[in-house]
User: What shape does this take?
Amino acid sequence: MPVVRTLTRVAKQMTLSPACGCQVSVMPIRSIGFSPRQVPSDASFHSVSFSETDHPRVLITGGLGQLGVGLAKLLRKRYGKNNVILSDIRKPPDSVFYSGPFIYSDILDYKNLREIVVNNRITWLIHYSALLSAVGEANVPLARAVNITGLHNILDIAAEHGLRLFVPSTIGAFGPTSPRNPTPDLCVQRPRTIYGVSKVHAELMGEYYHYRYGLDFRCLRYPGIISADSQPGGGTTDYAVQIFHDAIKTGRFTCNLKPDTRLPMMYIDDCLKATLEVMEAPASSLTMRTYNINAMSFTPEELAQEVQKHMTELEVVYDVDAIRQAIADSWPMNFDDSNARKDWGWKHDFDMAELVTTMLNYLNSERLAFQAN
Ligand SMILES: NC(=O)C1=CN([C@@H]2O[C@H](COP(=O)(O)OP(=O)(O)OC[C@H]3O[C@@H](n4cnc5c(N)ncnc54)[C@H](O)[C@@H]3O)[C@@H](O)[C@H]2O)C=CC1
Ligand SMILES: CC(=O)[C@H](N)C(=O)O
Assistant: This one.
């Protein structure tokens, strides 16, 4: 029985392969004769490995959210405009549409995804599509479909075509029984949101595909991300973006979390830098496939005080949203990212003071430009 023999060999390799994940191609899909979707073993004939091209050919899913456009800008600067394709199910604004390749892609449509990967000779896939924590709780069936079924499509396409795959996870992948201050990479993960559950599932499935099929899966657990030129998509950490907009527009901010709710946070430039760095890191430097990354940790009260150093007149009131508060109370307060710092040299640039100055400078200059027109 050759199939049984092959599987026995594969099983032996699995037991022998080091837990570090340094051997990327321990079990190529071809060696077991079927891909995760049961396609014939030669179905990946059209895949293009990174070494065959000067630059990776990158597809970003869910690219019109808070993070995708900024990441596309960074990657296009590095790899060339036409080597980075943004995709989403929404209509892009003119500024995005005319800044580089954009394509419609619904991650729930497997055939369409595969066609995009094949026709555009994609080698790296950055999977940003998701429903975040608060919107996920408001629509659990949709969150389950996009975050879990969609991820399965992504994993299969990536494994079938030999892609390097990045899937972000989050502080939301931890729950009330996790150590919260600090939260290490490896500990109990029992989140209580569909978002968190789907992200733990993504971490585990990605790592499983790595060891089982040799998928080059890379994952960072992002903290709450703060950006000036893009809006957050419905998360628990959104208050830390909204405070800046309201401070500039009205001088008054109503916070939906309690003043002493401490959460890990990061400025978007650091988040995108980390993503690029982990994607470029040699596989031999990665002792794990999923890393915490962090920059700072603060409460709404501490953030408000820092903003008030620049805008003494800012008034902050609290009107707590019970659902968001319960989520925040189950998440890490401080994130231990020592493994990322040790393995691939992760280092953040923005602390809270730098973040606040940068956000206010950006939004103020935007307001002045708007008034001048
Ligand atoms: N922004 C943050 O603070 C954090 C984000 N992350 C993760 O980073 C990734 C990107 O986050 P954001 O840009 O903030 O998210 P976002 O919510 O702003 O954007 C998500 C995008 O996914 C798209 N999408 C929804 N359903 C889709 C489908 N069926 N097919 C294709 N696209 C679909 C939406 O149209 C949207 O543009 C997500 O996976 C998120 O979980 C993780 C931790 C923190
Ligand atoms: C931290 C996240 O994953 C996101 N910003 C959310 O609050 O849901």
About this structure: Residues 61-62, 64-68, 88-90, 105-108, 128-130, 132, 146, 150, 168, 170, 222, 224-225, 232-233, 235, 237 surround NAI (ligand 1) (CB under 6 Å). The first helix runs from residue 2 to 16.
